[in-house]
Amino acid sequence: xxxxxxxxxxxxxxxxxxxxxxxxxxxxxxxxxxxxxxxxxxxxxxxxxxxxxxxxxxxxxxxxxxxxxxxxxxxxxxxxxxxxxxxxxxxxxxxxxxxxxxxxxxxxxxxxxxxxxxxxxxxxxx
Length: 126
Fold this sequence. Notes:
Keywords: Transcription, Transcription regulation, Transcription termination, Transit peptide
GO molecular function: nucleic acid binding
Family: Belongs to the mTERF family.
Number of domains: 2
InterPro entries: MTERF, MTERF_sf
Number of strands: 0
Shape: elongated
Oligomer: single chain
Mean pLDDT: 85
Pfam families: mTERF
Distance between the termini: 27 Å
């Protein structure tokens, strides 16, 4: 954690206090998740510290497919990124599908396939 320039207070008082299960995660998983959140989603570390559970989510099966859907919807002007990205990541699968996929499937042909396809491709690659 310190390699990400997090202070001891952020690590102990923020991350471990909110999500002690992080101790069971591999360093590789944490690094991979941090890389995606910081470099692709452009999240600030304070957001990750506030929601350390996000580090446990599968990037390829949960986060990347959702990110792809949000980017398509934003590019078409159907949604604005007015919600915190962590809120979008924490939604249940059912809620995300209803609010961001099923709702726009008519306006964006192939949206469901994009969402499901990204997750399926990563399962085949594994």
